[in-house]
Request: fold
Amino acid sequence: MFRIDFNKLRFLVCDDNPHMRRILRTLLHSFGAREVYEAEDGATALEMYSHYVPDIVITDWSMPIFDGLELAQMIRQPESKGNPYAPIIMLTGHSEKRRVTVARDAGVTEFLAKPISAKGLYQRILNVVANPRPFIKTKTYFGPDRRRNTANAYIGPERRVGGEVEVMQQPSLLDKARSTV
Amino acid sequence: MAKSKSATVQISTFADHHIITQPNPLRNVLRRVAERDLDDPVARAEKALAGLSGEFKSWMVIEADRLSDAHAAILRDGFTDVTREELFRAAHDIKGDAATFGFPSAGAAAESLCRIIEHAPDLDEVPSNLIAHHINAIQAIVRERTRLDTAATAGELSKQLRGIADVFLTHANRDRPEHLEAVLAPSIVPAE
Reply:
């Protein structure tokens, strides 16, 4: 069994509702987190993201200035100076399946529908820490692999075009991102 | 903070996509513990949340009043981008927060109101009573919660409102298949 050392993680929480920020802060601190930064809109969150380089972002969807979806899209810029790989957990009152798809296509790592529970939040964090997915870069998408299942039962057109694999080794982009701060 | 030393990124290049894999940068925050480890972070967090619960009623009153204020602005100025957005945002916050604060029926009524705002073809054509009844119901559920007989009544009230709203939305969207599909689609949140 694994546990997370929350005191080694830095969180950025973005929600325009002060009550929900208080709930999140309480949950994260009681999990053991020490560093929890808070923003009440997407623009502030983006600034704080560049400044504090959080390990995990937890964001609401509906917010003023720009929303959580736009925040995710701005973080997931492969050419940006910052870290485009940080796990993003979208915590939202939206509970329709199409919203999950839209969030996934914006590069969100995990989706958590409100009402929030300690167990639900812990499980999402455990998942992004213990089971990170590779990133996929296409002309129209950059973010965690949207294919979670490796089963061969898929029926339908193959949307990724194959070809000879060329493997390139590079220094960690995450380390590179951190060293620029 | 979680740092990975000497980690390398591996990029596999295909015809139309790249697969980028790097060693888990957060792996050093994982710690193996015994199966019978007594420390339970979830239980600890639930206890901390319970410690906050004394404030939930007052938070809920603030949220409900914000909704009423947004409605008052609409009665005064009509539906504009600004007034619509504030009504939606206030209802959406209650939808997301109310169950955590111990008011699940207020959350259900707020969800029904969100669906009206999101899927009505023309908000000016929505019967004004339908919106007002949702807001009055949320206020009543929040303020009358201390009465012992209100839980069942609150649940029934929310259910009835949702039924009426769904009939309205299904009829209003009969020629808008995309909205009709969204109105009829089940929620991803399991029912209580």
Notes: Chain B has a mean pLDDT of 90. The radius of gyration of chain B is 23 Å. Residues 182 and 188 of chain B are 12 Å apart (CA to CA).
